[in-house]
């Protein structure tokens, strides 16, 4: 029975994208139609992110915009902001009538029903319940060629600056047998690439061995990688890895299987041991460098990317310079640089010695310039090489180009038409820009 139309807007990380796909699966099964336009929807849901202050503010702006539209939809907030802020959202944005926490996604149809039946305020910030599934219908996936597959959710690390352990709860790993079955299904459906996702994928620790039997490795994650590689799906990527848990057996598994893609995202956060300790990251600069050395010593060249937080409370100029030095040493293929953002309720929020906005901006510019230089060298070394590109769509910049990703997760644009979408094409790189490569089709 048709119940109405729903629009979901997604902020934040890949876990939120995966949750939106999962929410859409349940809602369609319950009789709702998903729409791409907020203006004509009966229900508008915001799947929110709280990792930095700016991400959180964005949702309140959007709520205001939707409320001013011609139609007055039922407005709901789901995701990390809902989980963390709870009822205070009702006070801050009175047009919101529905709050759905990060583990309540599967109960959305019932909760919406309650709100539409007249309940003024509906709120569910509870835990997942037995029997609820991770299943996502292929119809709700954002792409027909690249699929996100959650393998672990939550986080037990409690880095002192980070809100995620509070918004996502404790780590829960999905049984390997279920992950492998989903990837086999995706392969049959014609998917070329899967991304195993989680706040820390390499902390993967399922309750059962099921699905890992016969796959070697010192850690469950390395065994899972081998099990997933055995499905034969052409490309497997995974993100994010936690440095402390990045054991060498992961690199060994990747070296053995061509379909485990040559890209590793390993966020280091800082190049100063004192700052890392204050962040409670659980490793030292030397530990991180040992991981990088193992990666560099591998059989293939792995693209390495990272995240850095600048201006953590108490970070001195000298400590910032230590980060600059580490970035120089590691030669990252790309780097996400974040200005420290104070999150209420985290231990770092109580720290003194706040870095001034001016100093923060100066450090950002300095680190960005260094990375730009490093990246230009790495990218220009690709010129003349042939890379394999999974074509995702038309280029947004040019009407004659299409765009896609390499196995090392670099964006490549090249002349081509929409008939190539979903295909894996060999591309000879002819030019390098700051954040992408340019090339032409070639036969091999
Ligand atoms: N689990 C991953 C990261 C998840 S959050 C890890 O531990 O590496 C993604 C990135 O957001 C982090 O790597 C960090 O660089 C950044 N981040 C998280 N909290 C932040 C904060 N309070 N201020 C600024 N950046 C933050
Ligand atoms: Fe946040 Fe640290 Fe967990 Fe990453 S490992 S999600 S930075 S608490
Ligand atoms: Fe944001 Fe929540 Fe992801 S805070 S980064 S959406 S886990």
Q: At the first level of CATH, what is the class of the largest domain?
A: Alpha Beta
Question: Measured on Cα atoms, how large is the radius of gyration?
Answer: 22 Å
| Percent of sequence in beta strands | 15-25%
Bound molecules: S-adenosyl-L-homocysteine, iron/sulfur cluster, FE3-S4 cluster
Corresponding CATH superfamily of the largest domain: tm_1862 like domain
Question: Spans of 5+ residues with little confidence (pLDDT < 50)?
Answer: none
N- to C-terminal distance: 52 Å
Shape: globular
- Secondary structure: helix percent: 25-40%
Summarize model confidence as the mean pLDDT.
Answer: 95
- At CATH level 3, the topology of the largest domain is pyruvate-formate lyase- activating enzyme
Structural class: alpha/beta
Instruction: Please give the CATH architecture of the largest domain.
Output: Alpha-Beta Horseshoe
Largest sheet: 6 strands, parallel
Tally the beta strands: 19
- Please indicate the count of domains: 3
Task: Specify the number of helices.
Answer: 13
Q: What's the arrangement of strands in the largest beta sheet?
A: 2-1-3-4-5-6
């Amino acid at each position: 029975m048709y119940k109405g139309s729903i629009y979901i807007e997604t902020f934040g990380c890949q876990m939120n994208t995966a949750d939106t796909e999962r929410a859409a699966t349940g809602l369609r099964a319950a009789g709702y139609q998903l729409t791409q336009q907020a203006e004509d929807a009966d229900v508008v849901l915001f799947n929110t992110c709280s990792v930095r202050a700016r991400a959180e503010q964005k949702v309140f702006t959007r709520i205001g915009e939707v409320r001013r539209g011609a139609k007055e939809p039922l407005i709901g907030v789901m995701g990390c902001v809902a989980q963390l802020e709870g009822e205070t959202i009702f006070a801050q944005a009175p047009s919101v009538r529905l709050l759905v926490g990060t583990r309540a996604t599967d109960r959305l149809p019932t909760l919406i029903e309650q709100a539409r039946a007249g309940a003024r305020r509906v709120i569910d910030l509870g835990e997942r319940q037995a029997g609820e599934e991770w299943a996502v219908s292929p119809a709700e996936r954002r792409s027909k060629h690249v699929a996100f597959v959650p393998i672990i959710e939550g986080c037990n690390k409690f880095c002192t600056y980070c809100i995620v352990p509070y918004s996502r709860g404790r780590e829960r790993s999905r049984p390997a047998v279920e992950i492998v079955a989903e990837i086999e299904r995706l392969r049959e459906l014609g998917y070329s690439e899967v991304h195993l996702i989680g706040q820390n994928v390499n902390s993967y620790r399922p309750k059962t061995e099921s699905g890992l039997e016969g796959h070697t490795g010192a850690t469950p994650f390395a065994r899972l990688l081998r099990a997933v590689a055995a499905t034969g799906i052409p490309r497997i990527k995974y993100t994010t890895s936690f440095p402390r848990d990045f054991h060498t057996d992961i690199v060994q598994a990747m070296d053995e299987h061509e379909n485990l893609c040559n890209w590793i995202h390993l966020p280091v956060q800082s190049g100063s041991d004192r700052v890392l300790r204050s962040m409670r990251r659980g490793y030292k600069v030397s530990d991180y460098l040992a991981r990088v050395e193992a990666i560099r010593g591998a059989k293939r060249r792995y693209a390495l990317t990272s995240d850095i937080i600048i201006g953590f409370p108490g970070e001195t100029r000298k400590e910032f310079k230590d980060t600059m030095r580490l970035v120089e040493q590691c030669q990252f293929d790309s780097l996400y640089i974040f200005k420290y953002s104070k999150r209420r309720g985290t231990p770092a929020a109580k720290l003194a010695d706040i870095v001034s906005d001016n100093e923060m901006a100066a450090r950002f510019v300095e680190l960005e310039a260094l990375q730009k230089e490093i990246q230009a060298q790495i990218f220009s070394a690709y010129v003349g090489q042939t890379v394999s590109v999974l074509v995702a769509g038309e280029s947004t910049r040019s009407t004659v180009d299409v765009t896609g990703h390499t196995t090392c997760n670099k964006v490549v644009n090249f002349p081509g038409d929409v008939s190539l979408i979903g295909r894996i094409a060999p591309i000879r790189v002819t030019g390098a820009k700051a954040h992408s490569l340019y090339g032409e089709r070639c036969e091999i």
